[in-house]
Amino acid sequence: MAPFHPLFLAIIILSNVVVSHQQDYAAVIPALNSAEQEATYRVLDSINSGIPWRSVFPGDLCSSAPHGVVCSYFSEVNSSDDETVHVTELSFGYVSDYTPNPPCAADAVLSPLLFTSFPFLRKLFFYNCFNHSPVSFPDIAVGPTDTLEELVFIDNPSFVGSLSGVLRNFTSLRRVVLTGNRVYGRIPDIVGDLVNLEELTLSRNQLSGEIPLSLARLKNLKVLDLSHNFLSGKVPPSMGINQSELLKLDLSSNGLSGRIPESFGAFKKLQFLDLSFNSFGSFGVPMFLSDMTKLREVYLSGNYLGGQIPDVWENLGNVVRVGFSDMGLEGNIPASMGAYLKNLSYLGLDNNKLEGTVPKEFGLLKFVGEINLENNSLSGRVSFPGSNLTSRIGQTLKLEGNPGLCVDDEDVLWSAKNSSNGSFGQLKLCKKEGQKPNPVPLEGSLSTAQAFPNSGFVILGLLILLLFA
């Protein structure tokens, strides 16, 4: 027998106790029809044949079923009295103690019955079920499962197939989550026909090619996540024009290039934007960020956008995380970032070409957990009057790789250099007001002692000659 989670065993035992009490209600509660009952048993066997499903759950599966098998009641069209019951959700793969779905065995397969025998199925969920032999969608003409609204496959490395092969038979989908699988090929134009779609998450697969223009037809889309694939080419500007309901856009870790479309400024409700680690060109940080007043997180790291950080922060008080690392940014850090981003918890500006001082306005940030300014060309005093941010240099405030920076407090310098989880680099103690700097010889020049190592003896000899002359 294949092993399964202890909590699931406890639920099975408890279910047997409950079954006897539920039999008294059988006369008034409609039962699952025999065809769906049999199909459910066979699907459970295909997921984990090591569990004796029929003996553990011998009664009506809609009255007593394993977690993950969900039924709903339906009224007949021309009757107010007659009701039927059908399986509407099937979830497999142990997730946690709070959602102990039927655990998948090593030899779990994707049964064709899932797509032919459940005329009211709305949700199909697989988590970490297919890890060994390749599994793909059955090549059959799907019948009644056109009612499917949620299709979720998470972390199934042996689930293989083209996206068109997965989606070709479904038209009522509201939510598609295929992440951490081996779905390959181009994003097909048929995706644009899923007009009810509210979430399309296809991250961590092997998708390639360009983002199709057909995605712009998804006007109800709230979440679009195509991250960690092999997509290339330019982003269609039409995406930003029609998708005004979008809350999350994640295109990170692909090979996208060209310019970030100005039409993205139409995402007035957008809260999460991640375009990091692509090949977007040197057109600077987009000014349209100032129009995204609902924005909470923005990541552009790893794109060589260049230019200066624009002063677009006045209307972005909801922002909590900004990732602008390794972007070729130049010039000063705008003081407005500290003045307006009151809720900021993370700011990454490391590995750029930034100059000037660290804005004192950063001391106004009450909730910040990390400000990473490493490996720039910043200089001057690091001081935040009235704030404890100075004491957190090396931890919250990371400054390594900026040899021109200094601090006034010797204790702060000592703490930074001895911080176990931070960095300080070449940070040094500032010279006091009015203190003359030590003369520094020109590079390549020699001091008198270095140029004339025996000059002392020569002078002494001249003095002796003068005395006895």
**With helices defined by DSSP (H or I, 4 residues minimum), what is the helix count?**
9
**Unreliable sequence segments:** 11-27, 437-452
Q: Could you give the order of strands across the largest sheet?
A: 1-2-3-4-6-8-10-12-14-16-17-19-21-23
What is the total tally of β strands?
25
Q: What is the first-to-last residue Cα distance?
A: 114 Å
Assign a percent range to the helix content: 10-25%
Largest sheet data: 14 strands, mixed
Transmembrane segments: 451-468
Protein name: Piriformospora indica-insensitive protein 2
Pfam family, one: LRR_1
Keywords: Glycoprotein, Leucine-rich repeat, Membrane, Repeat, Signal, Transmembrane, Transmembrane helix
Summarize the structure.
The chain is α/β, with parallel strands linked by helices and 469 residues long. It is built from nine helices and 25 strands.
Explain the layout of strands and helices.
Layout: H1 6-22, H2 34-47, H3 53-56, E1 69-75, E2 83-92, E3 123-127, E4 150-154, E5 160-162, H4 163-167, E6 175-179, E7 182-185, E8 199-201, E9 206-209, E10 223-225, E11 230-233, H5 239-242, E12 248-250, E13 255-258, E14 272-274, E15 279-280, E16 297-299, E17 321-323, E18 330-331, H6 336-340, E19 346-348, E20 353-354, E21 370-372, E22 379-381, E23 397-398, E24 404-407, H7 410-417, E25 428-429, H8 448-451, H9 455-467
Parallel strand pairs: 2-3, 3-4, 4-6, 5-7, 6-8, 7-9, 8-10, 9-11, 10-12, 11-13, 12-14, 13-15, 14-16, 16-17, 17-19, 18-20, 19-21, 21-23, 22-24, 24-25
Antiparallel strand pairs: 1-2
